[in-house]
Design brief:
By secondary structure, the chain is α/β, with parallel strands linked by helices. It has a single domain, classed as 2,3-Dihydroxybiphenyl 1,2-Dioxygenase, domain 1 (Roll). It contains two helices and seven strands. It has helices spanning 17-28, 76-85, and strands spanning 4-14, 37-41, 47-54, 67-73, 89-97, 100-106, 112-118. It starts with a strand and ends with a strand. 20% of the residues are buried.
Length: 122
Amino acid sequence: MAKVTGIGGVFLRARNPARLAEWYRRTLGVPMSDGGAVTFHWDGLETTTLALFAQDTDYLGEPGQRAMLNFRVDDLVLLLERLRTNGVEVLPQTEESEFGRFGWCVDPEGNRIELWEPAPGM
């Protein structure tokens, strides 16, 4: 059954991603890269990423959306199909990369949600 299997990441808009990454490093000890991201590795293959995006990014959806959840899923195509069938707004584009396949939907309050089917071995 196509379903969410975990949280792949949390993405935040930032007025100054580099400065905010430095704050997370210095204040909380989060090992953020200079680019403003860190991936935590849990037991097995599970990971969760915290990433900072520029304030003017389109990636997170509407400008008022401060954060976007990224959910790991086990079957992206089937889940997107089921969401469409159930009347959920599903964005038409999908992406494939070395990290896996990505698709997006929008919750009832207008928040963009990223759905990620990890590549084998991730």
